[in-house]
């Protein structure tokens, strides 16, 4: 047949005896559809005399998998349509439409019959083969799986040249990112005789050797040394190298005789054996693989230019860069730079400012005449890019409602190496907040979010209030902090602004299922549940139970611990963060009870805890309740909260001598106290804080019973009676700071965070006529689980150490409490942690940490020595799972536990956390 259109896009032929066909065909594919068998003969038609016909019928032939009705629809042809033949463009459009689907190797339109002004058509198709299998050869299965996922490979996909090229491109990028810049791919097709029109694809991959960087050479950098420029290239590192002294050259030469395995064992590259090309450097790997990644390399070139700009070289540019193979078949990089002239800031004037004077703006800007020119610094101080840190000129204006504020630095003159600027401001009107909209809260009631907002309709817009609102929403703990959206929508016509907040709910209820070894108590199981977004007002509405009513931001917690007959504990608490619904007045109530029976232990423990081992009903009971009310303060700032709480604990002892105090094994002790807590919290979020601080100062007082009876000597009473009504005064101070060590860029908030903490506690009597009870004191060491206390005592954990009972750092018993130990009355603790988040996903927040800490406890203030401390260091991991809360561990080494001649292993200790972070 004669093709009237080249390159296989369209072919039309007139066949006197075999009918007519219109065809589009791809080269190197399966053969085209054969024409119909014994088509009716029709009379030749002249191409110069086209006729109009009505389509009488259309059939589709050659399809294996595709729906024929759908293909007819895609062709644009249908029965009853008028077409011009020959020469009509309806056939061309139909072929192009089908061809554009990229599903066919051949598209053909046959004219099978023409009669009485009607035409019969047949669309012949050859489908592209389907991929029934694929595999990768020459690489690991894990790598093959990653590539298949990135390329979107799946069985049943149509095999096209574009599909193959896509896979090849993904392979090249996958290995280029890993430093294998010379990877090659070969594709092989394998016919499948078992399935119609299908094939398998095999990708043979040779990733080659890693392309490493031997040297990065800068040319033209007369004012900034190579070392500083290389430091800016974070993603492009050359091999670390050590210069050999000439005196050991012979040793170096002798090393050439070492076998290849010798060099591989120690991570060295084998030196060249050609002595005339002896490399003067002994190369080795140290932390960096020095692999070459083209994407990172291009980014690093921009960083080099940016560094030049920040040093005053605003005209600096990279003239040329070259990569070439070194003698060791690795990569050398030569970068030629043009530094240009070094510039300085000249006069900086202001235009258009009415809110702030020139002197105030100059002070905020912080750039003086004669400072090194730095455009990036200038734009940062002007606030050209919105920053949550504030402190820039745009921030000062926007904090006072100038949402339409604009600022532009304009160069007005260059005098030699000095650049003069005029800063032009357009303050605009102060914007008033019109509407505040909230979306995405599927579970939490809107009023719970709205009451946390600082952006109130009718008030002036403030960027500081917008940022603070974001923090308050995040600290609720109900939403993904990474997905909280804030979008001001200005209305220029009326000078108002609407603010749209978007949130994403996350699971935050917690189920505690744990087991721990509670020191002398033994194996203890715990079942607890905490509903962090509870709704008390819907408690009697069954339709709101899922599993309990939620959405009002209240907290309900129930917890039960037991190990059978020996020990059991019950805890219940409820918190309403906004009592009354109008002010941030936090109201909390809690009840708890515990029971310990030493006779359920072995005879050893029964004798240890009691004076008479023949008794069978000795026990220790604790019953307690607490009511607290917290109020947010306005001064010194509104990060402060003042909390009042009334607490009561009743301790009942029967034949129980746990404290080793003679005469204190039977009786009842009552502890009624009033506690005042002043707290300040400005952390950006709860689970993984990256900025801000926490401070807490508390004072706790029992009634001064001895003051009411100044003539009585309470120490003359029997010891049990002395503790009938406990009296003490107690003070605690905690401080925590969170400092990001590198600023998050874009949406990636993964950054190292330094946490620094200091803690102090002191408990004492009102006067010397009374005896301080063992309750309310401090217990140090352990992890908060192993030193499981059922009595009123503050447990101050220390990683790397068991519970200790003396202030002497050299004494660290592994287990056992000495008889007569009453606890410490003074303690201090210092902590430093370096944290890094591996996952900020709210469904599983994971971060690692390295820590150093020091702590100690003291029997009395006269023994207090803040520098006599037990020291430890180690590493740890934290896993926050919405359903279970905190899971974590630390591996700490107590330096004061290292024995003479012993190793670090003997001083190491694992610490596990379940449900809470030890204090």
From TrEMBL:
Signal peptide start-end: 1-24
Keyword Magnesium: no
Keywords (A to Z) from UniProt: Cell outer membrane, Membrane, Repeat, Signal, Transmembrane, Transmembrane beta strand
Location in the cell: Membrane
Keyword Transport listed: no
Pfam name, any one: Omp85
Domain named POTRA: residues: 343-428
Gene3D superfamilies referenced in this protein's UniProt entry, alphabetically: membrane protein fhac, membrane protein fhac: a member of the omp85/tpsb transporter family
Highest taxon above the source species: Bacteria
InterPro entries in UniProt: Bac_surfAg_D15, BamA/TamA_POTRA, D15-like, OM_assembly_BamA, POTRA
PROSITE patterns: POTRA
PANTHER family: SORTING AND ASSEMBLY MACHINERY SAMM50 PROTEIN FAMILY MEMBER (PTHR12815), TRANSLOCATION AND ASSEMBLY MODULE SUBUNIT TAMA (PTHR12815:SF47)
Protein name (record): Outer membrane protein assembly factor
Species this chain originates from: Chitinophaga qingshengii
């Amino acid at each position: 047949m004669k093709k009237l259109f080249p390159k296989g896009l369209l072919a039309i032929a007139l066949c006197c005896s075999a009918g007519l066909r219109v065809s589009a065909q791809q080269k190197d594919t399966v053969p085209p559809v054969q024409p119909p068998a014994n088509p009716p003969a029709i009379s030749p038609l002249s191409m110069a005399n086209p006729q109009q016909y009505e389509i009488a019928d259309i059939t589709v032939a050659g399809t294996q998998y595709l729906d024929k009705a759908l293909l007819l629809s895609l062709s644009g042809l249908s029965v009853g349509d008028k077409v011009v033949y020959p020469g009509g463009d309806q056939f061309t459009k139909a072929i192009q439409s089908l061809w554009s689907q990229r599903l066919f190797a051949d598209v053909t339109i046959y004219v099978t019959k023409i009669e009485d002004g009607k035409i019969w058509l047949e669309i012949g198709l050859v489908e592209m083969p389907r991929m029934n299998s694929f595999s990768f050869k020459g690489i690991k299965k894990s790598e093959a799986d990653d590539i298949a996922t990135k390329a979107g490979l799946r069985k049943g996909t149509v095999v096209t040249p574009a599909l193959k090229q896509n896979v090849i491109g993904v392979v090249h990028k996958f290995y280029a990112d890993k430093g294998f810049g010379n990877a090659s791919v070969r594709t092989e097709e394998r016919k499948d005789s078992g399935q119609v029109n299908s094939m398998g694809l095999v990708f043979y991959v040779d990733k080659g050797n890693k392309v490493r960087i031997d040297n990065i050479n800068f040319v033209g950098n007369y004012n900034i040394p190579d070392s500083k420029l290389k430091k800016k290239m974070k993603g492009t590192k050359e091999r670390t190298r050590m210069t050999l002294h000439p005196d050991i050259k012979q040793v170096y030469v002798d090393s050439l005789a070492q076998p290849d395995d010798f060099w591989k064992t120690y991570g060295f590259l084998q030196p060249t054996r050609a002595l005339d090309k002896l490399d003067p450097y002994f190369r080795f790997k140290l932390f960096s693989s020095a692999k070459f990644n083209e994407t990172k390399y291009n980014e690093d070139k921009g960083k080099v230019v940016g560094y030049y700009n920040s040093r005053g070289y605003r005209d600096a540019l990279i003239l040329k860069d070259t990569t070439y193979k070194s003698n060791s078949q690795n990569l050398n990089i030569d970068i030629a730079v043009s530094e240009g002239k070094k510039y300085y800031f000249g006069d900086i004037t202001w235009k258009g400012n009415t809110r702030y004077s020139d002197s105030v703006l100059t002070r905020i800007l912080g750039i003086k005449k004669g400072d090194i020119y730095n455009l990036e610094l200038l734009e940062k101080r002007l606030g050209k890019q919105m920053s949550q840190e504030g402190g820039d000129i745009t921030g000062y204006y926007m904090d006072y409602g100038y949402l339409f504020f604009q600022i532009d630095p304009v160069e007005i003159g260059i005098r030699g190496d000095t650049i003069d600027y005029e800063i032009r401001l357009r303050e605009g009107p102060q914007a008033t907040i019109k509407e505040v909209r909230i979306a995405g809260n599927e579970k939490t009631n809107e009023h719970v979010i709205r009451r946390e907002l600082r952006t109130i309709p009718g008030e002036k817009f403030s960027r500081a209030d917008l940022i603070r609102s974001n923090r308050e929403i995040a600290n609720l703990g109900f939403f993904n902090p990474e997905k909280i959206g804030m979008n001001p929508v200005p209305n220029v016509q009326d000078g108002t602004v609407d603010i749209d907040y978007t949130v994403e709910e996350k699971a935050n209820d917690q189920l505690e299922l744990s087991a721990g070894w509670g020191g002398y108590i033994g194996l203890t199981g715990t079942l607890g549940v905490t509903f962090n977004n509870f709704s008390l007002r819907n408690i009697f509405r069954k339709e709101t139970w899922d599993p309990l009513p939620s959405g009002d931001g209240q907290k309900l917690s129930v917890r039960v611990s037991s190990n059978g007959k020996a020990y059991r504990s019950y805890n219940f608490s409820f918190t309403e963060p906004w009592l009354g619904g109008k002010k941030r007045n936090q109201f909390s109530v809690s009840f708890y009870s515990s029971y310990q029976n030493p006779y359920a232990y072995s005879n050893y423990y029964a004798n240890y805890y009691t004076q008479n081992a023949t008794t069978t009903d000795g026990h220790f009971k604790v019953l307690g309740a607490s009511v607290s009310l917290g109020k947010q303060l306005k001064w010194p700032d509104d990060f402060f909260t003042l909390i009042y709480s009334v607490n009561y604990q009743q301790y009942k002892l029967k034949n129980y001598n746990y404290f080793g105090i003679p005469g204190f094994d039977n009786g009842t002790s009552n502890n009624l106290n009033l506690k005042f807590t002043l707290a300040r919290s400005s952390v950006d979020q709860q689970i993984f804080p990256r900025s801000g601080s926490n401070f807490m100062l508390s004072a706790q007082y029992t009634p001064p019973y001895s003051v009411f009876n100044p003539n009585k000597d309470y120490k003359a009473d029997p010891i049990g009676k002395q503790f009938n009504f406990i009296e003490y005064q107690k003070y605690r101070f905690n401080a925590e700071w969170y400092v990001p060590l590198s600023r998050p860029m874009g949406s990636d908030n993964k950054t190292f965070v330094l946490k620094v903490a200091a803690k102090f506690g002191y408990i004492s009597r009102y006067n010397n006529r009374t005896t301080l009870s063992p309750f309310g004191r401090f217990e140090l060491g352990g992890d908060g689980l192993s030193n499981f206390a059922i009595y009123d005592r503050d447990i101050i954990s220390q990683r790397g150490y068991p519970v200790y009972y003396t202030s002497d750092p050299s004494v660290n018993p592994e287990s056992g409490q000495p008889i007569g130990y009453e606890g410490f009355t003074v303690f201090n603790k210092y902590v430093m942690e370096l944290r890094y988040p591996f996952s900020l996903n709210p469904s599983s927040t994971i971060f690692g940490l390295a820590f150093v800490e020091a702590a100690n406890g003291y029997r009395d203030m006269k023994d207090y020595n803040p520098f006599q401390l037990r020291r430890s260091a180690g590493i740890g991991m934290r896993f926050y799972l919405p359903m279970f809360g905190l899971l974590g561990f630390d591996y700490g080494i107590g330096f004061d536990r290292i024995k003479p001649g012993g190793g670090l292993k003997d001083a190491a200790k694992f610490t596990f956390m379940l449900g809470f972070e030890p204090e």
